[in-house]
Amino acid sequence: MIDLDKYGLGYLKMKPVNTWTDDDFTKLFDSFVSDNSAPIVDISFNNQNIEALLALSHCRQCGNCCKTSAIDGNNPSIIAGQEELKAIAKKTNTTYEQLSAKLVKHPMKKDALCISLPCMFYADGQCQIYDVSPKVCNTYPLTGVMNEDVSYVAINLGCDYGRDIYKWLLKGA
Ligand code: SF4
Ligand code: SF4
Predict the structure, then answer these.
(1) What is the mean pLDDT of the chain?
(2) Which residues span the domain enclosing 137?
(3) Closest ligand to the CA of 59
(4) Count of domains in the chain?
(5) Which of 39, 108, 133, 152 is 20 to 30 Å from 95 by CA-CA measure?
(6) Residue 62 C-alpha to ligand 1 middle, in angstroms?
């Protein structure tokens, strides 16, 4: 349930979602972004669901998710696990240790590190390690959020790709 009052959009409660205007959706989506938050939907974060949701629209290839984060504008980074980092190290002709030394520890996950944004692997308008990029990059604008041992889908609304997907879900299409 979206707390529309929190965003000064209580009037939308009186309007069925399928009558919302583009402006209504934009106001809501902008509110999430200014709040540094992303709506969490009642869908499990698993490969099948992610694939189906991502197929609802398309990436505009703007590269913004490699440069900044809609979720934590103060500490923009992406999370990468040990195996992912080993693959990246191999791809970039360095060692896991040398690569890790450039990254920061994840505050909660012991074996994960964070690649600060703008990402060091973004150059010439594209990801230079695409085939070994961390899973979080491949599922963006969708991310997993744990709640009582279940991972749910959160939709980042910083780009039109995420907005299209969330709009589709809100409309119950
Ligand atoms: S996922 Fe979104 S932010 Fe990232 S490149 Fe695609 S459209 Fe841009
Ligand atoms: S690893 Fe590639 S896709 Fe992921 S943030 Fe860096 S440049 Fe973007």
Answers:
(1) 92
(2) 36-171
(3) 1
(4) 1
(5) 108
(6) 5
